[in-house]
Amino acid sequence: MERKMYLKIRENFLWGQKGSERKLALISWEKLCRPKSAGGVGLRDLNAFNKALLAKLCWLLITNPNSFVATILKAKSYPRSNIWDAMVPNNSSYTWRSILSVRELLQSGTRWVIGNESVVADWRTSEEDSWDEKALNVLLTEQEFVAIKNCTLAESSQDDFLSWKYKKIGEFAVRSAYHYEMQSKYGTIGSSDLENHRWLWNKIWKAEAPEKVKNLVRRAISNGLTTMVNLADRGINVHRLCPRCGEGYETVLHMMLSCRESTILWHLSPIRLELNDWPPDLFEWCYTFARSCLIKKSWETTMMFMWKVWCMGNIWVFEKKKVDPVLACQRTMNYLGEFEMAAVREDAPKPAAIQIIQKWQPPERSLDKLNTDATMNAEEKVGLGMVIRNDVGDVLISAGRPICGIIPAIQAEAEAVLFGLKYAYEAGLRSLEVETDCLNFADLLQSRARMRTPTQVIVNDIFDIARSFDFCCFRFASRKCNNVAHNLAKKAIHLDQMIL
Ligand SMILES: [Zn+2]
């Protein structure tokens, strides 16, 4: 009721009304609520917003089944089933009816991440901790079967959990649900665009990076770089195709991230991009990526590499020269290091942020050091590599192993760390320093943030094993310090089974 009245007041405010005489509405209310990008003025669509809030409530009921409200509602409304299957009886309350009405929104926006103490336990064999292929074969299509077989199964005891698809960390957020609801209503991105812009702008200005890097990133996300597509759009007679790879139109997104030539540098960098799902534009991508960076350094490094990618593109176009990507990666890392050192010197009391060390360093006395890496080749085959060395640099164990299935790069890095930790434990080592050359994954381990994604299942397993060590810490090491693990991973891609 209140919502209806509020809507009325807002309508009147916009269109004006004197007594009972109504002015003519020139534009429909629905149209005004549309996001600016869809021709509206981006007023908040209260219906969609209300739905998003209800979805949050529903999400809380599902993810906190032991909360006070959830227990009461369950006892009253669905004692023998769950919220997904709960019926809507004729005499149910308005609130309850409203909550259940958003199940569809929630269902299409979520997925389950499978743990170990799982609702799908029947589909798994007890001996080997793997899927019961016979049982699955009967139930599923070929495609579903393959997809499920590729799911990572937890080894430590973990529950299944719900993951919200529209947030990188998998946690439900009203804003993204509103976005999503608006998107399904109008087919474009919602009106909080402006807020997102402001957020990302801040993230760029406040980054500790050289001004020219900030400027470049700002221009890139506002589509202000000279690319073939932008030139053609401005009426210049050029071909839209990317001059470097010739495989797609040269948009800013292509130039920065998805061009074959650019991905080479990204692969060498300590940042792992998920290179399969491309958003509509660079802004969207930067926004989502920056949100997923838990530590400032990840985002700053990403900005630096965006700048380098752009420089490499320019050198190619204007000087017809190809820059060696390995060298380019090295220079970027050095530049980053130098910049941080300089920044530290300026405001002296701060301790040195990071040093870019270019060579593998032995661990402290009486510790051993595990280096891990995952690599992916063009056919999306994944190899894991690990090496353990002691405090004088002698190799204790080294191994590599291929894994099947297409998985996101960061998940592969997680698999590599888990692979290495297991070996270390079995070999009886109990004091370990673990290094990965994936900056965003190191962030994840160090910050101990919980995500609602499949990678979290592996992270939980990692911490589970780590607890059995007397000492175990995780840190980032540059690719150069991680050469041995990297080469092992590269070799492992072509193997059928593990090498030791
Ligand atoms: Zn290209």
TrEMBL record:
Domain Reverse transcriptase zinc-binding, chain residue ranges per copy: 174-266
Superkingdom to which the source organism belongs: Eukaryota
Domain RNase H type-1 stretches: 371-492
Sample GO molecular function, one term: RNA-DNA hybrid ribonuclease activity
InterPro entries: RNase_H-like_dom_plant (IPR044730), RNase_H-like_EbsB-rel (IPR052929), RNaseH-like_sf (IPR012337), RNaseH_domain (IPR002156), RNaseH_sf (IPR036397), RVT-Znf (IPR026960)
Record-given protein name: RNase H type-1 domain-containing protein
Organism, scientific name: Heracleum sosnowskyi
Origin organism lineage: Eukaryota, Viridiplantae, Streptophyta, Embryophyta, Tracheophyta
